[in-house]
């Protein structure tokens, strides 16, 4: 069953802050994972197709989409089991690969109240899925670049909390599904 919630200004600000934290962590995580020539593509071009970072390792070049999410859903406390890459991720990835002569990859950062984990993988390893599965079985097949790393972010301000819809709400473009 789908539940719908309003996407308002505070939700958008929280999502933007979470994205900023993801980009902040990504450079450090990639560096610790042995990547070199790390570049934040969003600093070079606003909304670079698919990728947030470019990096190299072991003679291979990568364009990397960074996704950071809360490990657990706020309301149900169930695992947030899939981090979406976007409806056109494969087309955008192809454009980024061509532009940078690199292979499309992703970095999934799973945020918990006091720690985070970061996993790296290739887009091709997702078998056509437009999301990164974050189940225990799936993450066991990914490269863990950072496990249970402590952080000092205000987790409460970053939690997935949405205001439920009421019968007076009429603008579906401001809703998100959970």
Describe what this molecule looks like in 3D.
This protein is an alpha+beta fold and 178 residues long. It has one domain (23-154): Trna Endonuclease, Chain: A, domain 1 (3-Layer(aba) Sandwich), CATH 3.40.1350.10. Helix content is 25%, strand content 34%. It contains 4 helices and 11 strands; from the N terminus they run βαβαβββαβββαβββ. The strands form 3 sheets. Strands 2-3-4-6-7-9 form a 6-stranded mixed beta sheet. A 3-stranded antiparallel beta sheet has the order 10-1-11, with no helix packed on it. Strand 6 and strand 7 (115-122) form a beta hairpin. The radius of gyration is 17 Å and the shape is globular. The chain starts with a strand and ends with a strand.
How is the topology of this model organized?
Layout: E1 4-6, H1 9-32, E2 36-40, H2 41-44, E3 53-57, E4 60-70, E5 82-84, H3 89-100, E6 103-111, E7 115-122, E8 131-133, H4 136-139, E9 143-150, E10 163-164, E11 175-177
Parallel strand pairs: 4-6
Antiparallel strand pairs: 1-10, 1-11, 2-3, 3-4, 5-8, 6-7, 7-9
Compact overview of the structure:
The protein has 178 residues and is an alpha+beta fold. It has helices at 9-32, 41-44, 89-100, 136-139; strands at residues 4-6, 36-40, 53-57, 60-70, 82-84, 103-111, 115-122, 131-133, 143-150, 163-164, 175-177.
Order of helices and strands: EHEHEEEHEEEHEEE
* Percent of residues in beta strands: 25-35%
Helix count? 4
Q: Please report the total strand number as a whole number.
A: 11
- Provide the number of structural domains: 1
Largest sheet: 6 strands, mixed
| CATH class value | Alpha Beta
Secondary structure: helix percent: 10-25%
CATH topology: Trna Endonuclease, Chain: A, domain 1
State the shape: globular
Low-pLDDT regions: none
Q: What is the radius of gyration computed over CA atoms, rounded to a whole number of angstroms?
A: 17 Å
In CATH, the architecture is: 3-Layer(aba) Sandwich
Q: Briefly note the structural class of the backbone.
A: alpha+beta
Report how far apart the termini are.
Answer: 9 Å
Strand line-up across the major sheet: 2-3-4-6-7-9
